[in-house]
Structures are given as C-alpha cells and as structure tokens.
Design brief:
about 425 residues, Rossmann fold, 2 domains, 4-stranded parallel sheet, elongated, binds 6-O-phosphono-beta-D-fructofuranose
C-alpha cells in the first residue's frame, strides 16, 4: 500500500501499551506498510520528531509485547480547538503530508480519543486525507463503550496480588506490632483499580476490609469506626484507598496542588494521611504504601487476558485504518462472563471522546466499603492468566530498548510553546 502509518502513544503509560505497539508494527509489516512513531506522542508529530520503526529487528518488535513503559515516549498534551489554534492543526497536516502519512493511530485514553477525533475531522479540510483510529489504553479503565481498557487488567492483577501479599504480612505482625495497612491506588475519578483490590479476599473478615472509592464521599467518623471494629474483630485491618477519594465538599483528599496540560490535578498522598488519622484517633501502629508508577509498570505480574486485549486492539486498529475506517476505536466487547469470551468491534470515536465511565453502583457493596458479586464477575476474567516476561541469567526481565532512529526532518522547526 502507498503511504506510511503514524503511531503515537499518549497519556499515562501501562504495563501493556507496548504490546499494542508490537501488534501495530507486526500487523502493518504484514501489509507491507511502514510504521513511523511519533516521539513523545502528539508533541513529536508537531515537532516532526518521528521514529522509523522499520529500522528495528523482528525480535526487537516482538519483545515489545513483554516490555512495560512507552517505547516511543508518551505525553500529556492537549490540542486546542480548531478555532483557538488552527496553526497547530495546519502544522500536523503539514508533517503528515511531508512524510506521506495516510493513517494515524493514537494510543491513549479519553483525552486522546478527543485529540484523535479532532484530527480525523480536519485532514480533508486542510487538503491531506488521513484515516485516524483511536486505540484504547488506560489503567483507569474509564473509557466509555469498551467493556474494559488495555492496561487495566494488569494494574488490577498487581493491586489484588499486592493486597493479598501485604495482608499476609500485616496478619503476621498484628499481635504485637502493625495493626493497620493502608495502600493507595491510582484512578483519578473512577474506582476501578480500587475495586480490583477486592478480589484479594471474600467476606468481611478477609482483606481488604475497607475500600475507599472516588464514587463514595469520604466520611471520617464512619471510616474510623469501621477500622476499629475490624481490628477488634479480626486483629488487623487492610485499607485500600483510591487517589481520587473526595470529601463532602468535593475536594480530593490527596490533591497536591499541581495540574497537568489537561487541567487534571496531580494526586497522591492520601494513604499516609489516612494512616496518620488512624494512629492519632485510634492509636494503632500502621504501615502504608503508595505503589504509584509501580502499579502501572508491573509487567512481571501482568494479566494474560490484558496482554491479549492490548495486542488485539493494536491489530484491529491497523486493519480498520487500512480499510479506511476514519474516526473509530477498536472496542473490547464481552460476549460471555463464564467462560469469558470477547471480541473486538469498531465504535465511533465521538462516543468515546471526553466521556468517563465510573464504577457502577451495582459494583459497590451496600456499606460502600467493598465490592459485590457482580463486580467480581466483571473483574475476575480481566486479571486471569499469567504472561511472565522472559528472564535473563542476571535474574532480571529481558526488556527491550529500541534504537528509535529518527526520520530526517523535511520542514522548518516548530516551537510548540509559542503556538
Ligand atoms: O493515566 C492514568 C493515570 O495513571 C492516573 O490514574 C494517574 O492519576 C495519572 O495517570 C498520573 O499521571 P502522570 O503520570 O501524568 O502524573
């Protein structure tokens, strides 16, 4: 086929986003289409900072499937509206034209779906037709329409496994030392990752004893009473708290004050805050953990289902693009819970862009601190299966670092900050 395909990664990366990259490049190669990658997402496209993936070996591309992080670099960068900054769009199309880019695959969350949608609408108007496909990814699992998002199954598995393991530790120490363990997980506005911690145990006496969801307003007195009752009954208590928990005024408990390019607050630090509250008010010794980037990069404990989803959306993304299906996203459609069955279908990007899928009420237990059977039915298949990376003699995973050879620039330099 005539032309090049441009692939870019966007937003927070995941343990499996490179499995999608692997699928994109392997599928395009089968169709004899060359894949260029934008360095650091859309920023690289604007700067004409492109990578020639045809310079990578078959083995290096295959190894992307088991390598975490974003192999080409990602970004938090919001394209303004066409009215506000036509120049940005003109520049993108200029870069696409200069490098004969006929297909653009943008791998990201809901903000990236919005960016993809905007680009999908302007190519023709600016005289260079390009087929744009949004490819889903986000540990937050908050994209609309798709049943789940690649990246989530692995962070969910990491969270459930860590909750289980750390709880065995606390249980051992509780008689004479630590009585409360608090773990903070990601998920800005939706409690999907926090809910996954619930897979670690069954029933009120098994961990996690308390899950704090962003969907439920934090009630300090009720929380402390619950922790106290659990310690008195079980001997210890594991708390899993989402970074997105808010108080009755709607303010994040963990807001640190900085914001990214999308205006999102940077979160973090609710675990130590709650642990100290427990100590001050109930007197229990505590430990807390904030896995932070560890949770979304933990490829060593990735979910096999998640890796398969990530690969499948990349493959379908290329197939849709080459078939000329503009402004769509490959969505994961669940056709059965048990046995777990799924397929990939195209959905219009307009149905995904800027929507946020929260944890449904029916997934949260009545007391607000746990998950329901319906949540388990949804979550369990997503964490199922192991897909360990190969390990070297040094005992470490054999992750690949690509050469990332730059494509020669053809256009004048472009300073993003000025536009
Ligand atoms: O992309 C999702 C996410 O992992 C959130 O859960 C988290 O709040 C955020 O990204 C962190 O983003 P950054 O890496 O840009 O600080």
């Amino acid at each position: 086929m005539q032309g090049n395909l441009l692939y870019a990664q966007s937003g927070g990366v995941t343990a499996v986003i490179n499995a999608t990259a692997c699928a994109v490049i392997e599928t395009a190669r089968k169709h004899k289409v060359r894949v260029l990658a934008a360095r650091n997402g859309i920023i690289g496209a604007l700067r004409e900072d492109l990578i020639d993936t045809s310079r990578e070996t078959v083995a290096a591309i295959a190894a992307l499937r088991h390598t975490p992080g974003g192999a080409f670099g990602s970004c938090r960068f919001k394209l303004k509206s066409l009215e506000e900054s036509r120049a940005q769009y003109e520049r993108l199309i200029e870069v696409f034209r200069a490098h004969d880019i006929r297909w653009f695959l943008y791998n990201g969350g809901n903000d990236s779906a919005d960016t993809s949608l905007k680009i999908s609408r302007i190519g023709k108007a600016l005289g260079h037709e390009v087929t744009v496909v949004g490819v889903p990814k986000t540990v937050d699992n908050d994209l609309a329409v798709t049943d789940c998002c690649p990246g989530f199954g692995s962070v969910a598995k990491y969270t459930a496994v860590s909750t289980l393991e750390a709880s065995l530790d606390v249980a051992s120490m509780a008689e004479s030392s630590t009585k409360v363990f608090v773990m903070e997980v990601m998920g800005r506005h939706a409690g999907w990752i926090a809910a996954a911690a619930g897979l670690a145990g069954h029933g009120a006496d098994e961990p996690p004893h308390v899950i704090l969801f962003p969907e439920i307003v934090f009630d300090e007195a009720k929380f402390l009473a619950r922790v106290k009752a659990t310690v008195e009954r079980v001997g210890w208590c594991t708390v899993v708290v989402s970074e997105g928990v808010r108080n009755a005024d709607g303010r994040f408990l963990s807001e640190v004050g900085t914001r990214d390019a999308f205006g999102h607050a940077q979160l973090g630090g609710v675990a130590p805050m709650l642990a100290q509250l427990v100590k001050d008010r109930l007197g229990y010794k505590y430990h807390w953990a904030m896995p932070d980037y560890l949770q979304r990069s933990a490829r060593h404990v990735a979910s096999k289902t998640d890796v398969e989803h990530a690969y499948a959306v990349g493959k379908a993304g290329v197939q849709y693009a080459l078939a000329g299906r503009n402004a769509v996203m490959p969505a994961i459609v669940r056709t059965s819970d048990a046995p777990y069955r799924w397929k990939i279908e195209p959905v219009p990007l307009s149905k995904v862009a800027n929507h946020e899928k929260k944890l449904p009420k029916r997934f949260i237990s009545r007391d607000g601190y746990g998950i329901t059977d319906a949540a388990r039915r949804y979550l369990e298949p997503l964490v199922r299966g192991e897909d360990a990376p190969p390990y070297g003699k040094d005992g470490l995973p054999r992750y690949v670092r690509l050469k990332n050879t730059s494509v020669a620039k053809k256009l004048p330099a472009y300073a993003i900050a000025d536009k």
